[in-house]
Amino acid sequence: MKSAIRFAVDIGGTFVDAIAYDETTGELRLHKAPTTPGSPARGVFDAVGGLADRLDDVEAFVHGTTLGLNAILQRRGADVGIITNEGFRDLLEVARANVPAAHMYDFSYAPPPPLVPRRHRTGVPGRMDAQGAEVTELDEDAVREAGRLLVEERGLRSLAICFLHSYANPAHERRAARILRAAYPDVSVSTSTDITREYREYERTSTVTLDAYIRPVLNDYIGALEGGLAGAGLTRPLHIMRSGGGAMTAELARRAPLMTVLSGPAGGVVGASFLAREQRLPKLISFDVGGTSVDCCVIEDGEPGEVHEAAIDGFPLLIPIFDIRTVGAGGGSIAWIDEGLLKVGPHSAGAVPGPVAYGAGGTEPTVTDAALVLGYLDPAAFLDGEMDIDAGAARAAIEAELAVPLGVTVTQAAASVFQVLLARTVGALREITVERALDPREFALLAYGGAGPLLGPMLAREMGIATTLIPRVPAAFSAFGMLMSDLEYEFATTVLRPLSDATLAAVEPAFAELEQQGEEVLSTQGIKPEDRRLIRRLDVRYHGQEHSLGIDLVPGDTAATVLSRFNAQHEARYGHAMPDAGQILTLRVRAVGKLAKPGLRELPATGTGGARPAGSRPAFDVATGEVTPFQVYLRDSLSPGHTLRGPAIVEEGTSTTVIFADQRLTVDGYGQLLVTGGNDD
Fold it and tell me: Which of 390, 395, 370, 381 is nearest to 455 (CA)?
């Protein structure tokens, strides 16, 4: 029988992970290739080429990328022009006029400069009121003049349009977009209401600006990717992960590139949610450690936390994304001394030049260099032996840059790198657990990414988490999660009405319109009617509050049942509920198109009792604070039923799991590694 192969590719800041899943045999194959910042598509082709010469037999291809995110963080997006209402060109500077909590007592704080300079912003006459009624007719000649100024005189190739109250009536935005696209067909045009139909002009302006900023970058990349994959024989549609889970076609990603801005980490969260449901894990924390960052997300009852408002590098955006906490500290993060204090990240050595041990020109020690010094990584087995590693150079860099300035030994300096990294990570996890009245000790930790299995058991010890779960092929788990995705898209509109039975009846036509949009999108993506699902949700708040909570709306709901669920969720989140009246802020519809996906396969229980080590080497044991012999095992030799006690190291080429003296490891029925505290028989 012919095998059905599914491909998924995840681009990180350091490596590209490609995974091939054989639906017939359940075999997972992984290949990693260095990220190629100068030509991102080339890194994808290198990773895919390590698994298959041709893609003619591939049934599905899903891709996640942080290319848009990196363009924002590194200020490498397009030069953007903004067209808004007359008198509102300074909205980006005015913003909310507040100081971020992290800089509350910093009297020298200055907000980041806007992505778009003032000379690239212009206003045109025209106005809608908050109910969507036209107050002043749109001046179409002024729109044409604004286009001439920004495109012909300023030489801009990407435009963003955001008008006041367009969430209530987008007619002016749509008309302006038609005028500009007709006059300048080669110029990219983004409108705020194509991305979000929600109130808050500043946040909506920032959102559409970010979309316009990355649109040319993503369009060029997706075009190059589709061309190269088609040349390799791919006949199935290319799908791109969304930041809030699910996937969409490449064509839809071109129309809404901002929806992909956190698509890489989203794949891991989707995979973690899948495992939580399949293995009935009611409380799980995903812990994704790559080359440049640590990404964490809380998953309860198989559902990840989600938000509809976030920020990237200080710029707000109104899109649905997973509630992921990111720490700028991964395997490639640079360790450095700041006024006598050791710090780790947020700067990363990235793929170029990479850690000192790579021998590619890096001079600043990284977390990877510290792991080599502490004996956690085998230089000869790094990336299955495909990359030459200079452990001596790593040790020399740790000594010169960290140990000597701090007045400690090389081992102490390297161990301190991990202590600082763990302290930063614990802080991020507390934000999404303890600060939300959740006890992290009640959760299991799912550790993945290239460095997740190394750091996961350390973090579990630090936070009192009983079980750390290491999935199969952890280095490519985010890519594996992409194979678990359905097609998804979300539509929303602001209503700002009291929560009452009369309001629920009155918003029915608005819900119907959103559902129609969802049906159209799923239809264009080739989803059969029987595989479509539309989910309604309300954003509800107490009257007078600023922020809201999302409440699912099911058939037969009344205002009283919705308010009851809102009160329960508010009490669970904030520790109290109030007797105040409720208010509906936003209507949302999530359109889901079901896709075939691989299941979780149990493996034969061939292992019994202890496993046979492949050797041993000295490494630093955080349980004892000393360098001690660690037994080394090859993961391929471990089968369901095997157990082993720390201190031990499990190697699998692209990832390394470290178990300390007070921990033990068990292989479960799916071939996953369970690391638990306690080392008694």
Answer: 370
Tokens 């779960």 correspond to: 469
For residue range 315-366, what is the model confidence (pLDDT) as tens digits?
888 888 888 887 777 788 889 998 888 988 778 777 678 889 888 888 899 9
For residues 62 and 109, state if they share a domain: no
Question: Domain of 56: which CATH number?
Answer: 3.30.420.40
Identify whether residues 543 and 660 lie together within a single domain.
Answer: no
- Shared domain for 46 and 114, answered yes or no, is no
Q: Are 318 and 39 in contact (CB under 8 A)?
A: no
Q: Are strands 321-322 and 306-307 parallel, antiparallel or unpaired?
A: antiparallel
Domain enclosing residue 507, as ranges: 488-593
What whole-number distance in Å separates Cα of residue 338 and Cα of residue 334?
Answer: 12
Neighbours of 53 (CB within 10 A): 10
10 Å CB burial of residue 598 (0-12, 13-18, 19+) is: middle
Kindly report the CATH number assigned to the domain that includes residue 524: 3.30.1490
Take residue 222 and report the two structure tokens written for it: 């997706």
264: Cβ–Cβ under 8 A, 6 or more apart, which residues? Answer: 10, 11, 12, 64, 65, 66, 241, 478
Residues in the chain: 681
Burial of 670 (0-12, 13-18, 19+ CB in 10 A): middle
Same domain for 86 and 200? yes
Terminal CA-CA length for the chain: 46
Same domain flag for 194 and 96:
yes
Residue 404 in domain: no
Q: Are residues 18 and 129 in the same domain?
A: no
Q: Give the predicted TM-score (pTM) of the model.
A: 0.81
pLDDT at residue 200 above 70? Answer: yes
Domain membership of residue 447 (yes or no) is: no
**In which residue are the tokens 């209402």 written?**
85
In-domain check, residue 385 = no
Question: Cβ(507)–Cβ(536) under 8 Å?
Answer: no
Same domain, 249 and 146: no
Question: What confidence tens digit (pLDDT) does each residue in 398-446 have?
Answer: 999 999 999 999 999 999 999 999 988 888 888 888 877 789 999 999 9
With 80 as the cut, is the pLDDT of residue 116 above it? yes
Query: What's the token pair of residue 303?
Result: 């559902």
CATH number for the domain including 132?
3.40.50
Q: Answer with the one of 233, 260, 287 that is the final residue of a domain.
A: 260
Backbone torsion region of residue 280, taken as left when φ is above 0, otherwise alpha when ψ lies between -120 and 50, otherwise beta: left
Residue 533 tokens read as: 């699902």
Q: Are 263 and 65 in contact (CB under 8 A)?
A: yes
Report which of 437, 436, 455, 435 is spatially closest to residue 445, judged by C-alpha positions. Answer: 455
- Cβ atoms of 469 and 333 within 8 Å: the answer is no
Instruction: HSE, CB side, 13 Å, CA atoms: give it for residue 353.
Output: 13
Domain count for the chain, please give it.
Answer: 4
| φ, ψ dihedrals at 463, nearest 5° | -105, 5
Which residue, chain included where needed, has tokens 């408002």? Answer: 309
Residue 409 forms part of a structural domain: no
